[in-house]
């Protein structure tokens, strides 16, 4: 067995995540809203020894996305979802996404530290700064920030949350029944955090959790976003189309982490991948083709339009992709990640495909790389990716719920274990321990 072991996260974004047709997949549940689906997903991920279930967040409503069952068409409160997942597991971590834009530091810090206690130290916070006007409609009192300022405020926010989480010394909760000293105020700091953008006095009425406080996840991609992630992230999530791009991102993040005075080897980079598993390679390829048939042309074009930020309303679905882009996209938009990387993916087909075909192609994985084959082939590919050093682990994007995770657990994980790159048992009790960050 090699010493370095890879990490696994499960992307619990339903009814559809990066694959826009997930809710229409014949094997997918229809019972999205009750706790049974969450419990089943949690137990499946834990049986497969995943490090964490990852719960994304959004607070905006997009009628197009709702119409087509895209990501965020239905959305529970992430902390409630995390509570359900933690309640039926003992080792699985839970990554909870909460926005710095619309929560007071005190509320957010307490919600997550409570969850961290109640789960025995298995919670992570995915720190997001919300951008785009749609997000701000429900919070008219919040000033919309963008670019660097958004992340400058984010820096303050994380400082404030960490100050709240670290206010109690480890031994402040004395519980001396003889003397009558329950907790020692002398061992509790009042953070009284005051920044340019926000202030909070604190402390919370909670001591440190079994892993001290939640692990921090970040997924910024812009230069400023990466600087932020490199400063604060224990775990970084990234979507890159190729291994070389992921390696470049890792090098960049490590450089930025060192510049921030951190030990760069303590950052865990998770590469998002979409496994498509078959009993044979041919079956896996057929399943990949099948996925496209579950996305209607209209739905694919709406999904792509959103990410490319190009208005495609009323477009002729049979028009050539290149003509539509030339006619509708501005210069800035043609340089967007969605268009540049979709162009790369289409390659020589770019000039031939219709806008509908391009939209469906984009919507099968939202540019997340697909790994297609038997369980053994997928395990070998992931092991090679990991061994190359380009990533420390993988964020598994499902194509249907909860079957994708079940199949991955049964068909891929045993081969990762045989190859010596993945645990056969959890080694730690807390998420921080399992990630080798205790
Ligand atoms: C795997 C992954 C998961 C993400 N989850 C969320 C999420 O739940 N909510 C959200 O608003 N943004 C989410 N994001 C977006 C990032 O937080 C970030 O805004 C994005 O990568 C763009 O980077 P930038 O802010 O530096 O421009 C996610 C990104 C990635 C790669």
UniProtKB/TrEMBL annotation:
Gene3D superfamilies: Luciferase-like domain (3.20.20.30)
Pfam families named in the record: Bac_luciferase
Enzyme class: oxidoreductase
Boundaries of every Luciferase-like domain copy: 38-390
Record keywords: Flavoprotein, FMN, Monooxygenase, Oxidoreductase
Record-level Gene Ontology MF annotations: monooxygenase activity
Family of the protein in this entry: Belongs to the NtaA/SnaA/DszA monooxygenase family.
Record protein name field: NtaA/DmoA family FMN-dependent monooxygenase
């Amino acid at each position: 067995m090699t010493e370095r072991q890879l990490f696994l996260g499960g992307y619990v974004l339903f009814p559809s995540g990066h694959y826009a047709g997930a809710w229409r997949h014949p094997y997918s549940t229809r019972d999205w809203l009750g706790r049974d689906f969450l419990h089943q997903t949690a137990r499946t991920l834990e049986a497969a020894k995943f490090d964490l279930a990852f719960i994304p967040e959004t607070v905006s409503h997009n009628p197009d996305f709702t119409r087509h069952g895209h990501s965020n068409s239905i959305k529970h409160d992430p902390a409630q979802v995390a509570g359900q997942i933690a309640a039926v597991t003992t080792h699985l971590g839970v990554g909870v996404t909460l926005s710095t834009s619309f929560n007071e530091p005190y509320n957010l810090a307490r919600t997550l530290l409570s969850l961290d206690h109640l789960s025995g130290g298995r919670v992570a916070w995915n720190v997001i700064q919300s951008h785009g006007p749609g997000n701000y409609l429900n919070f008219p009192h919040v000033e919309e920030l963008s670019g660097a300022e958004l992340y400058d405020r984010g820096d303050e926010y994380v400082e404030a949350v960490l100050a709240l989480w670290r206010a109690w010394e480890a031994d402040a909760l004395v519980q001396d029944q003889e003397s009558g000293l329950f907790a020692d105020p002398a061992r509790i700091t009042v953070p009284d955090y005051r920044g340019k953008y926000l202030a909070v006095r604190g402390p919370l009425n909670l001591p440190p959790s079994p892993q001290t406080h939640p692990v921090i996840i970040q997924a910024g991609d812009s230069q400023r976003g990466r600087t932020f992630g490199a400063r604060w992230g224990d775990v970084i999530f990234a979507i890159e189309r190729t291994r070389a791009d992921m390696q470049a991102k890792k090098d960049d993040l490590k450089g930025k982490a060192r510049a921030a005075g951190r030990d760069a080897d303590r950052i865990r980079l998770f590469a998002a991948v979409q496994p498509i598993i078959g009993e044979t390679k041919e079956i896996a390829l057929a399943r990949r083709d099948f996925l496209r048939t579950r996305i209607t042309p209209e739905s694919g074009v709406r999904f792509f339009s959103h990410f490319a930020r190009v208005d495609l309303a009323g477009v002729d679905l049979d028009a050539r992709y290149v003509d539509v882009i030339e006619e509708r996209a501005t210069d800035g938009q043609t340089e967007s990640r969605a268009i540049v990387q979709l162009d790369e993916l289409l390659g020589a087909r770019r000039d031939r495909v219709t806008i509908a075909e391009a939209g469906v192609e984009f919507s099968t994985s939202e540019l997340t790389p697909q790994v297609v084959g038997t369980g053994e082939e997928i395990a070998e590919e992931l092991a090679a990716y990991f061994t190359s050093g380009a990533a420390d682990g993988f964020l598994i994007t499902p194509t249907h719920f909860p079957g994708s995770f079940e199949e991955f657990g049964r068909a891929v994980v045993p081969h990762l274990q045989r190859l010596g790159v993945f645990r056969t048992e959890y080694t730690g009790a807390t998420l921080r321990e399992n990630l080798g960050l205790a």
